[in-house]
Write a structure and sequence with these properties.
This protein is α/β, with parallel strands linked by helices. It has nine helices and eleven strands. A hairpin with a 2-residue loop joins strand 8 and strand 9.
């Protein structure tokens, strides 16, 4: 993510064997890749497993794809921008590498070990410093032609609506006298009673309701799962307050279309993203 990096060691049974935070100032690509590889081999050693059992590395980055394995992320991740990440990391680490958008990876992680496991088809809405989504259809990640399925943030300005993300939440809190050192600090200390929370909700709840309606009509999935780094107590309020437009319309033959469920992610984002990225290594090296 823009201000945090996490790693997880996953086995073929879907068990997380070890995990760690490896955040570094400036998020240097080479150093983080080395740290991830060292974590993997070190964790294997501590578990009494031979290092050559490490099957590969999955990389999940907050950014959209501009070419296969090449993303255009936020400014904070300049060192990860417009580079063939799979080729670069494969050469550096001499192991198979898979690259994915972080919202799609988090959707897979939630599907594996979170509330997403309840649904064959779902859309994971990833609220962080930016805004995106990952789409699961019949248990399979839907990537789109360029890997950018779920780049939904652009829907808000097109519809003349405010874009809800944690950067705007932090700014709103600051306007109401709540000081934080960054998104990570805000999320770690989040208090739903802080002044500014209600103002942010009032401005952005209509955007969430609009988005849920759009996703329901376009995807017809079982559930929309609100997650990312959004504090779960805040996510629950948003989900509970969501409005479906057809509830104000006359029923056709007293029968409405089947509803899509709204749910809140159960996995924290520092696990969901790495978990999904790691699972892709197995998918694309063992099962493709």
């Amino acid at each position: 993510m823009t201000d945090r990096a996490d790693v997880a060691l996953l086995d073929l049974a879907g068990c997380v064997r070890a995990r760690a935070e490896i955040t570094m100032p400036g998020m240097p690509r080479g150093d983080l890749l080395d740290a991830a590889a060292s974590f993997g081999t070190g964790a294997l050693s501590s578990l009494g497993i031979e290092p050559d059992r490490l099957n590969g590395l999955g990389i999940a980055v907050a950014g959209f794809f501009v070419a296969p394995d090449m993303v255009n992320p936020a400014e904070e991740l300049e060192d990860w921008a417009l580079v063939d990440l799979r080729a670069d990391a494969s050469r550096r680490l001499t192991m198979p590498v898979v690259v994915e958008n972080i919202a799609s990876a988090a959707a897979l992680g939630e599907r594996l070990l979170g509330v997403g496991s309840r649904y064959a088809s779902s859309c994971y809405v990833n609220v962080a410093s930016g805004f995106g989504a990952g789409i699961i259809v019949d248990g399979v990640l839907m990537r789109g032609r360029h890997g950018n399925a779920g780049e939904i943030a652009g829907l808000f300005p097109m519809a003349g609506r405010a874009t809800p993300n944690l950067a705007t939440l932090r700014a709103c809190l600051a306007d109401h006298g709540v000081s934080t050192t960054g998104i990570a600090d805000m999320v770690a200390r989040f208090d739903p009673a802080w002044p500014g929370v209600e103002a942010w909700l009032a401005e952005h709840q209509p955007s969430f309701s609009y988005l849920f309606g759009v996703l329901r009509r376009t995807l017809d999935c079982e559930a929309l799962i609100l997650g990312g780094r959004l504090p779960r107590v805040l996510a629950r309020r948003i989900v509970d307050a969501a409005e479906w437009p057809e509830t104000t319309l006359t029923d056709r033959r007293a029968t409405r279309a089947p509803m899509t469920l709204l749910d809140v992610a159960s996995l924290e984002p520092d696990l969901a993203g790495p978990l999904g990225a790691a699972s892709l290594v197995f998918h694309r090296t063992l099962f493709d």
